[in-house]
Write a structure and sequence with these properties.
205 residues; mainly alpha; Arc Repressor Mutant, subunit A; Tetracycline Repressor, domain 2; 2 domains
Length: 205
């Protein structure tokens, strides 16, 4: 199989997995569900991935790589703009039923992490990356004078990552959406991060 054909097959399986997760959830998901939404047959899926678990691990790897690629920003860009871009990416509040269904399926996968080391490793990698993104943005903001000199990049990264995670869980369990978390983070940045004398309107909406 040529590299381009392999890439097309991977993209097809990833898209099919996404659609199947949205429609079936994690618990009820089968390889046949994914094959039904893919150009690949069930036997072909098993050729690439022994089990549903293996396929979902590959899917999580793809999600991580896609997120990392999308959030590769210029380190010389404005720190506040970079912070806003991260909030937009992680707390995308688009009114999209498939997106909400997918967040629900991802919460089901997260619920398996305490009992599944491989899931836990993938989710930890994603969490570490998000925290590092925030830490880097805040550190650059402190250095450039946009953020307060006494702002702690590590502590801020832990706080923001916790808000991200909690906002998704709350949105799924209460159907409250993510807009409140976006506004709360904007208030936090304006109140606790912006340096004195920096006259910037902060709005993540």
């Amino acid at each position: 199989m040529t590299a381009s054909k392999a890439d097309e097959t991977t993209e097809d399986i990833v898209e099919a997995t996404y659609c199947a997760l949205c429609e079936c959830g994690y618990a009820g998901l089968t390889m046949q569900d994914i094959a039904d939404r893919s150009e690949a047959s069930k036997s072909s899926l098993h050729y690439h991935y022994d089990t549903k678990h293996d396929l979902l691990l590959a899917f999580l790897d793809h999600l991580f790589e896609s997120f990392a690629d999308r959030f590769e920003t210029d380190s010389d860009a404005d720190p506040l703009d970079r912070f806003g871009a991260l909030v937009d990416e992680v707390l995308d509040d688009s009114d999209d039923e498939a997106r909400r269904d997918f967040r629900t399926a991802m919460l089901e996968i997260k619920a398996q992490a305490p009992y599944d080391e491989a899931f836990r490793e993938r989710l930890t990698e994603f969490d570490d990356h998000v925290r590092e993104c925030v830490r880097s943005v805040v550190a650059d903001g402190v250095e450039s004078g946009v953020f307060r000199a006494d702002a702690d990049p590590e502590a801020t990264a832990e706080f923001v990552a916790t808000v991200f995670d909690g906002a998704h869980t709350r949105a799924i369990s209460t159907d409250s959406g993510l807009a409140h978390a976006r506004r709360a983070l904007a208030d936090y940045v304006e109140r606790d991060l912006l340096a004195d004398g920096v006259d910037r309107e902060v709005e993540f909406a």
